[in-house]
Design goal:
Blueprint: E1 3-11, E2 14-23, E3 28-36, H1 46-69
Antiparallel strand pairs: 1-2, 2-3
């Protein structure tokens, strides 16, 4: 089953809510990477969450096809 992992990295005074990845048994998909711009709060913006959910949905659809074709 897939799992979503968030990697956060600070660099040169900026925070990168770095990579959301989804891990399947055979592959790791990078779903989204972005620089956190908000100076207050730690919440991930809704736009980014929606984008991540859509990319996760697509990865779940396409992954079985990619595994069969390799």
């Amino acid at each position: 089953m897939a799992s979503v992992i968030e990697i956060v990295e600070d660099y040169d005074g900026d925070t990168y809510r770095a990579l959301y990845t989804v891990k399947f048994a055979e592959a790791i998909y990078v779903l989204h990477a972005f620089q956190k711009k908000s100076k207050s709060g730690i919440a991930t913006p809704k736009h980014d969450l929606d984008l991540i959910e859509e990319k996760l949905r697509r990865a779940r659809e396409l992954h079985p096809l990619r595994v069969r074709s390799s």
